[in-house]
Amino acid sequence: MQVEGQERPNLTDAASDILARICVQTRDEVARRMAGLPLRELKARLRDIEERPRGFGNALKLKTAEREVGLIAEVKKASPSAGLIRPQFDAAAIAREYEQAGAACLSVLTEGPNFQGHVADLQAARAATSLPALRKDFMLEPWQIYESRLIGADCILLIMAAIDDDRAADLLGLARLVDLDVLVEVHDETELHRALALETTLIGINNRNLRTLRTDIATTLELAPQVPPDRIVVAESGITSRADVLRLAEAGASCFLVGESLLRQPDAGAAARALLGPI
């Protein structure tokens, strides 16, 4: 498994100009951070970490087994499609609201230029709760996987539109090596088949079209029935109500990654609570 090289995988044909731009920015930022923390030193720091990951996948499996909504509640300040979402942003406070509401897991944006995120947001949110946390970022290079473990992530996101199959398999294998769970994200049928070829349980279906940034939950309605029952389907984006949750659950989704619709409400915890219940 070649996981430590610095080659740049090509984007798939499904990738948009926006995604391509973000990936270029991400690689430049990773190169800058690597200059300050070389891979050898990063690996050495990992040896001093005693705390084990909290079990992101297990938390979702438990909810699925109980036929309850597995809510991955998102902590983010802004996005390219929505602009500034939460002007008064306190990652720790938002995370506590989500935990008190009954969320199964957190998703925390750490990408800076487009989402105004930071690794400190993940650390603050995770420290404020007992919930496992997904690092929501653009994972392109092996160095990022080690960094994710160092900053306390319990799970990483692999976006199939941003990486080729070999890089996806390499990053997935490396994540397992450092005990991180992996959510593999797709947004069309081609990407779904690519993802299903990987040895991963968590399949995220993004209802946002990466070419146009338009959102349509019909994406999950179309793709979720094609996912084998031994995988867990996570519906992402465009989920605004309990009715949306129930409709997507009928198609096969058992977990739901929701951010913007919660964060635009004065009480994000109450908004999260309104999505929960049996499915």
From TrEMBL:
Signal peptide: none
InterPro entries according to UniProt: Aldolase_TIM (IPR013785), Indole-3-glycerol_P_synth (IPR045186), Indole-3-glycerol_P_synth_dom (IPR013798), Indole-3-GlycerolPSynthase_CS (IPR001468), RibuloseP-bd_barrel (IPR011060)
GO biological process: L-tryptophan biosynthetic process
E.C. number: 4.1.1.48
A single GO molecular function term of this UniProt record: phosphoribosylanthranilate isomerase activity
Indole-3-glycerol phosphate synthase domain boundaries: 19-275
Protein's pathway: Amino-acid biosynthesis; L-tryptophan biosynthesis; L-tryptophan from chorismate: step 4/5
Reactions mediated catalytically: 1-(2-carboxyphenylamino)-1-deoxy-D-ribulose 5-phosphate + H(+) = (1S,2R)-1-C-(indol-3-yl)glycerol 3-phosphate + CO2 + H2O
Pfam families attached to this UniProt entry: IGPS (PF00218)
Annotated keywords: Amino-acid biosynthesis, Aromatic amino acid biosynthesis, Decarboxylase, Lyase, Tryptophan biosynthesis
Lyase listed as a keyword: yes
HAMAP family the UniProt entry points to: IGPS_B
Family stated for the protein in its record: Belongs to the TrpC family.
Protein name, UniProt field: Indole-3-glycerol phosphate synthase
Top-level taxonomy: Bacteria, Pseudomonadati, Pseudomonadota, Alphaproteobacteria, Acetobacterales
Gene from which the chain derives: trpC
